[in-house]
Amino acid sequence: MQEQPDPLFTPGLTARVELTVTDADTAQAIGSGDVPVLGTPRVLALAEAATVAATATALPAGMTTVGVRVELDHRAPTSIGRTVRAVARLAKVDGRRLLFEVRVADGDDVVAEGRVERVLVDRHRFVERAATA
């Protein structure tokens, strides 16, 4: 029987990123609403940044991950000047598919949580394919 190679990523892998909310991060500025609080698209971008950070050090040369699916519950508003942190934890690996559980918090308060699925791809082929589409 042939041995399987060690997986590049193993469940439990985590990363954290932080953001201090500015005017540019608000729903008003992004166009996703008309209130001066952290906009949902910015919350999602922060959560995705945490998933990218989690895989960054283990990626083989020439490879990257791309987001393919997101489920996010934005539960609480965050005011300008507050600092939020997004934590991504790799929950499942299925071949090239990576499923992360993400949580965004303002101190002890949960701002958002959900799942982000990413797929491992060849960076050059992916960009080349996008350019010819």
Keywords:
133 residues; alpha+beta; Thiol Ester Dehydrase, Chain A; disordered N terminus; FlK-like_dom; FlK; HotDog_dom_sf
Structure explained in plain terms:
- The structure is a single chain.
- The protein is an alpha+beta fold and 133 residues long.
- It has a single domain (14-132), classed as Thiol Ester Dehydrase, Chain A.
- The protein has helices spanning 27-30, 40-56, 123-132; strands at residues 14-20, 63-74, 83-94, 97-106, 109-122.
- A five-stranded antiparallel sheet has the order 1-3-4-5-2.
- Strand 3 and strand 4 (97-106) form a beta hairpin.
- Mean pLDDT is 94; it is low at 1-5.
| Helix-strand sequence | EHHEEEEH
Give the CATH class.
Alpha Beta
Would you identify the CATH architecture? Roll
**N- and C-termini, Cα separation:** 41 Å
Mean pLDDT: 94
Helix content: 10-25%
Q: What low-confidence regions span 5 or more consecutive residues with pLDDT below 50? A: 1-5
Strand order of the largest sheet: 1-3-4-5-2
Count up the helices: 3
Q: What is the strand content? A: 35-45%
Number of domains: 1
Shape: globular
Kindly report the CATH topology: Thiol Ester Dehydrase, Chain A
What is the SS-derived class? alpha+beta
Provide the CATH superfamily. Hotdog Thioesterase
Major sheet characteristics: 5 strands, antiparallel
- Count of distinct strands: 5
The whole-angstrom Rg is: 17 Å
